[in-house]
Description:
Number of domains: 1
Radius of gyration: 21 Å
Strand content: under 5%
Shape: flat
Number of helices: 3
Helix content: 55-70%
Number of strands: 0
Structural class: mainly alpha
Distance between the termini: 59 Å
Order of helices and strands: HHH
Amino acid sequence: MRLRNTLIGWSFIAPNFLGFAVFTLVPVLILLYVSFTSWNIFGKAPWVGVENFTQLLATAAFTWRFSTRCTTPPFTFR
Length: 78
């Protein structure tokens, strides 16, 4: 009886786990992989590692916007 109740409980929450995996977890993992490559959609995706992030941190526009966002209180609308 206890096993049956456990299986019934899992049958109710399994679709939620499946939906989370398909619509949230898989896209995040793909995005994480793509962020470490230099992919132009039409060709192969050569692995560049953290080079993309070092280029991003080296730009003045990103550092200015990031520092502005960190010093502005949340929910401030302009």
